[in-house]
């Protein structure tokens, strides 16, 4: 799974869990466990490799207790990386050990630096402001964030058919406006 796909999946699960979706929260914790275990294992010396599972659990507990501090407008994996890094530093200090990080592992956990895409995101938001807010949100969820039409419809409390019609009409409006069809 690519870093962007991972970010989108984990961010979507985190947002859904913050909105009260218990199954999304369980999936988020399971996914985080799979990603954090090797991340910690790579950073620990062989003598302390058995501590990786403890660090995973401490990080999951910190994610749980501090989840309300996550800024919904920021990349989730960057926030997670900060939490995991702090847990790792605490562990290193507690056991007075030196971390070992392979040279090829100098990248953050999952998030890529998308600051260059800020202008693109701004342009997309500007374009989407030309349709009603619900339509804009449905388009964003299904076309940009990877949600299914059924998921997006459920979030808005409308039928799947109504969501499809709204998305279709919104895209048609945008195409007419930006393809030179509207004066």
From TrEMBL:
GO terms for biological process: DNA-templated transcription initiation. Keywords: DNA-binding, Sigma factor, Transcription, Transcription regulation. InterPro entries: RNA_pol_sigma-70-like, RNA_pol_sigma-70_dom, RNA_pol_sigma70_r2, RNA_pol_sigma70_r4_t2, RNA_pol_sigma_r2, RNA_pol_sigma_r3/r4-like, WH-like_DNA-bd_sf. It holds the Pfam family Sigma70_r4_2. Residues 123-174 form the RNA polymerase sigma factor 70 region 4 type domain. Residues 40-94 form the RNA polymerase sigma-70 region domain. GO terms for molecular function: DNA binding; sigma factor activity. It comes from the Bacteria. PANTHER family: ECF RNA POLYMERASE SIGMA FACTOR SIGD (PTHR43133:SF58), RNA POLYMERASE ECF-TYPE SIGMA FACTO (PTHR43133). Belongs to the sigma-70 factor family. ECF subfamily. NCBIfam families: PRK12539.1, sigma70-ECF. This is RNA polymerase sigma70. It comes from Devosia riboflavina. The lineage of its organism: Bacteria, Pseudomonadati, Pseudomonadota, Alphaproteobacteria, Hyphomicrobiales.
